[in-house]
Write a structure and sequence with these properties.
The chain is α/β, with parallel strands linked by helices and 269 residues long. Helix content is 45%, strand content 17%. A six-stranded parallel sheet has the order 4-3-1-2-11-12, with helices on both faces. Strand 11, helix 12 and strand 12 form a beta-alpha-beta unit.
Length: 269
Amino acid sequence: MAVGIFDSGLGGLTILDAVQARLADQDFVYLADSANAPYGVRTPDDIYDLTVAATQRLFNAGCDLVVLACNTASAAALRRMQENWVPSDKRVLGVFVPLIEALTERHWGDNSPPRQVAVNHVALFATPATVATRAFQRELSFRAIGVDVEAQACGGVVDAIEDGDMILADALVRSHVDALKRKMPHPQAAILGCTHYPLLKDTFLEALGAEVSVFSQADLVAESLADYLIRHPDKTGGGTAAFLTTGDPKRVSARATQFLRRGITFTAA
């Protein structure tokens, strides 16, 4: 049984790359909604409708489990989908949970009261839509107290990455880090709250400084998914991967190959 990996564009390939390395025998179907990217400047209703349509496309492709490898979709659509739309025989997971587990050092199933954690000052870099939902702060507050989260909406970064303009993306990241530091001069940890951002992790690290711990989602999500699949062995496969896009397959394939430095061929969704 294939696992679906969904993103508004190519950022979710950072998640796919990590989970493929961790789960070599698992089948995957990746769907990039490139025709409608980026999601980070859309309204919550737009994001919900697009995410539902993409998830249904992956269900139709034989995926009983879909990972929303898009922080904007996870923040703006996941809870509403789980409450009102996801069929009882399907499962849709987001990318926030593994990140909050790592930051708070407590398992998601731990329902004890919120408590103090080691990190008190956290910088969150995310799309404008993700920042607007305050979903990260809400989920974090269920498990930790005394954590000051300063969010920085990183407008333009996803667009630059999707266009292949990494020089512009690098400059934008540095500008957004500078803006964050004016609000929170000494963060202890930084969250890269968009799956595109690991492509610029070195830039974030350099701009933030060596004293800041940077949390990126790819490896954390891979470990979380591996744990889930160990508990649900019916989801294993033969290690194949299919790539679908709502955009121009030729253009998206070229960008994906550039990002992952290996040949990736997309077909029309």
